[in-house]
Each structure stands twice: as C-alpha cells, then as structure tokens.
C-alpha cells in the first residue's frame, strides 16, 4: 500500500476509532440538545406500536421504568427521569403472510427525556434523534420543530403522543 493510501485510510477510520473509544469508555453519543441515547433502552417496556401512513413507518415506543410506572398508575404529568424511546422502522411486506407488514430497515431512534429544570422551555422534555448507527442526527434547527408540534397536539397528555396500549 502506498503512503497516500495509508494516510487516506487512516483519515477515514479516525472518526470511527474516536466513536468506538467513546462508547467503550461509557460515553454515549449526544444530540445537540444534550440528550444522549440511553444505555439499555432496548430492554425498556413496550408501551404501544403505531403505524404512520404518510411515511410507511412502523414505530415501537418503549418506556424506561420511571415512565412505565407512571403509565401504569395513570400519573400525569410524568415525573422527572421519565424517558421514552421511539424505534422507527420502514414497514416491509412479510413473505410469510400476504398483507402483513413487519418492521424492516431501522430509520431512526428518537428519545424524549423528562427533566423539568434542564428543559423548562420545552415543557420539561428534551428531545434526541439518532440514526441506525446510533450517531446523533440533526442540527439545532431541526430540534426547534419538536416541542411546538407536541405543544400544539398533546399539551393535555404532558406533551407525549403515546398512550399506554392496554
């Protein structure tokens, strides 16, 4: 391999090495809002699935133990420390059953975390978006659209769209 190829390869791999080292050290990638992808979020309790017809997305909402307890008790507003993860998949036709849709490719993972002091301007909620590779996505401009939508539609449910599926 010539020196130019080695230099180019190292330049391309350097950001991956930094990310891998950060994850190994326990640092979690963080969105511009300060929201990190929570450790172990895939083990949280399933709250409800949904299907977004305009995008063809299947979504699964998972709640951490604090939020799960509040959902089960019917507690609103949700207490600080509550967090919900939205796993967004492109819907795919299953070959086993005509007409049945299943989660296909991961599109994005979105996180809401309740911290009434840190996120007071946004109803107490912080928002984060992460790609399939768990890297944060979006700049500050994107996040300016999160709370206004929640505020306009679900102020009566502590700004959370998802209801507990019984």
Question: Helices, strands, pairings?
Answer:
Layout: H1 3-24, E1 45-52, E2 57-63, H2 65-73, E3 83-93, E4 101-114, E5 125-130, H3 140-143, H4 146-154
Antiparallel strand pairs: 1-2, 2-3, 3-4, 4-5
Distinctive features:
166 residues, alpha+beta, 4 helices, 5 strands, 27% helix, 28% strand
Could you characterize what this model shows?
Helices cover about 25% and strands about 30% of the residues. It has 4 helices and 5 strands; from the N terminus they run αββαβββαα. The protein has a 5-stranded antiparallel beta sheet. The longest helix has 22 residues, at about 5-25. The radius of gyration is 19 Å and the shape is globular.
Tell me the overall shape.
globular
Radius of gyration: 19 Å
- The first-to-last residue Cα distance is 60 Å
Strand arrangement, major sheet? 1-2-3-4-5
Largest sheet: 5 strands, antiparallel
| Helix content, binned percent | 25-40%
Structural class per helix/strand content?
A: alpha+beta
Order of helix and strand elements from N to C terminus: HEEHEEEHH
Number of helices: 4
Total DSSP E strands:
5
Provide the residue-averaged pLDDT: 88
Strand percentage: 25-35%
Contiguous low-pLDDT stretches (5 residues minimum) are 2-25
Could you give a short description of this structure?
This protein has helices at 3-24, 65-73, 140-143, 146-154, and strands at 45-52, 57-63, 83-93, 101-114, 125-130.
């Amino acid at each position: 391999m010539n020196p130019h190829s080695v230099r180019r390869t190292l330049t391309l791999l350097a950001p991956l090495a930094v990310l891998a080292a950060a994850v190994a050290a326990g640092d979690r990638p963080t969105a511009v809002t300060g929201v990190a992808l929570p450790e172990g979020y895939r083990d949280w309790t399933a709250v409800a699935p949904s299907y977004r017809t305009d995008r063809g997305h299947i979504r699964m909402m998972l709640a951490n133990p604090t939020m799960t307890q509040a959902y089960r008790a019917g507690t609103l507003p949700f207490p600080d420390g509550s967090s919900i993860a939205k796993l967004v998949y492109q819907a795919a036709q299953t070959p086993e059953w005509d007409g049945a849709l299943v989660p296909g490719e991961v599109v994005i993972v979105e996180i809401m975390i309740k911290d009434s002091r840190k996120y007071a301007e946004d109803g107490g909620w912080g928002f984060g978006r992460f790609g399939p590779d768990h890297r944060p996505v979006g700049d500050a401009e994107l996040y300016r659209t999160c709370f206004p939508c929640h505020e306009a539609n679900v102020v009566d449910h502590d700004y959370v769209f998802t209801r507990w599926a019984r």
